[in-house]
Amino acid sequence: MPDDQPLPAPLLDRLAALLGPRGLLTDPADLEPHLADWRALYRGRTPCVVRPGSVAELAEAVRLCAAAGTPLVPQGGNTSMVGGATPDEGGRQVVVSLARLNRIRDIDPLDMTMTAEAGLVLKAAQDAAAGAGCLFPLSLGAEGTATVGGVLSTNAGGNTTVRYGNARDLMLGLEVVLPDGQVWNGLRRLRKDNTGYALRHLFVGAEGTLGFITAAVLRLFPRARESEVGFCAVRDEEAALALFRRFRDRDEGAVRAFEYMSGEGVGFYAKHIEGGNVPLPGHAHYVLVDLASSRPPEGGNTGLRALLEAVLEEAMEAGEVLDAAIGESEAQRAALWRIREEHPEAQKREGASVKNDVSVPVSKTPELIRRSSEACARLIPGIRPVPFGHLGDGNIHMNLEQPVGMDGAAFLARSHDIMETVNEVVRDLGGSFSAEHGIGRLKTDMMADWRGGAELDLMQRIKAAVDPQGLMNPGKVLP
Ligand code: FAD
Ligand code: 2HG
Ligand code: ZN
């Protein structure tokens, strides 16, 4: 271990004795994947990575680190969009990876619950639910890497919030290792449990600042027996919203996802993603609508296909939808979804971009997109707005791509101004500067402005009560 990284030698020896070679990484090559975030905004240092193989091992490791005053950074799949899971540059923060705590402890198709450990990858949780004839509905682009502990700790949203809610709504109980090493077992699988403060909700969205989520009871749902996906070119942002309303008014329960994409973003997909075919090229605005039902398909002029076609026809007559493609097979539906899911990757490949994960009341999404695009164009002529995302939740990724030909570093140097410009519009529309990705390290300096006064004071008092030494994920969430 390099000697400029001050982990007390006795602590390292104790951790090594406790965890063994699989549970404690110190080789620089092994540390490497844990040091930087997906967006490459941050690169930190750590003296070692702790990878406990059981809850008891984690609890003991936390006790040892607490006694030595050593700060800890929980890490799941390290897909955070806000630098939440990486250590700082000081070299003292120990990364704790939950990757080895990845068992499914129980699946109960009658209670409709799954008890899963924190390191279980989201896709594996979905697959296990499907294997039991059920659905775990949380779905997002990083689901092949993100973990149960990570999605709960960020209260992730994703593509199906419009129907099933955020990660918080999919959780019934938690098991947590507290900052002093105590284990709290709150793995109850109850639909009703009003017994004082709902402690489990304190840890959801806390981004690892209050303790380690080690396992959770997740809610399962009936699996879809019928689904339809429509990919539509729409006239403008208002038409996208009007189309959402048409579906909702006809059959709110049928809408599993309603996603907006700009022509620019779809163009990046076609340009950068292998096999990136777009069925309706050349439009300025697109929507992907996903309908699903757990009822057996009815066929004829009932069922989801009939609903999809009827709504699209009405919307075409109203001039809202300009053209539409319907997925005719599972493969076609997946290909249409791919256009949306690959947006983050396609945008990354196009060059430097500034992300704004913001939300407004659903009715204000057209105004958000239009006003912030115009304001950013005034700030940096030639800037390319790439808004996309969860229109059905009022959560638009109001992202901005560097002007063609502009130096990427020079563009990123304006990140603060760009984020402020978007946030001014968001504030005016009664929205939030952080919709689903969380605060992490990226947005801590906005907390005082947006959540100051009693709200931030209360958060700081909770933090001080649960983690009095301030050892859990320092520098994240709270300023
Ligand atoms: P990490 O990135 O490892 O950690 C995230 C935070 O949680 C950190 O603060 C970390 O310290 C903490 N943490 C992790 N595990 C634990 C634990 N067990 N106990 C306590 N704290 C813990 N997010 C959305 O909401 N919706 C999307 O649609 C979406 N799409 C994405 C698409 C891509 C391509 C990528 C790269 C990210 C996307 N995200 C999305 C970001 C999202 O935050 C993560 O995908 C996910 O929620 C984080 O899971 P993770 O396991 O990678 O957590
Ligand atoms: C998504 O919805 C993610 O794809 C990532 O939340 C958004 O890249 C982004 O800004
Ligand atoms: Zn998103």
TrEMBL record:
This is FAD-binding oxidoreductase. Belongs to the FAD-binding oxidoreductase/transferase type 4 family. The keyword Transcription does not apply. Residues 42-223 form the FAD-binding PCMH-type domain. Pfam families: FAD-oxidase_C, FAD_binding_4. InterPro entries: FAD-bd_oxidored_4_C, FAD-bd_PCMH, FAD-bd_PCMH-like_sf, FAD-bd_PCMH_sub1, FAD-bd_PCMH_sub2, FAD-linked_Oxase-like_C, FAD-oxidored/transferase_4, Oxid_FAD_bind_N. Keywords: FAD, Flavoprotein. GO terms for molecular function: catalytic activity; FAD binding. Its cofactor is FAD. GO terms for biological process: respiratory electron transport chain. It comes from the Bacteria. It comes from Dankookia rubra.
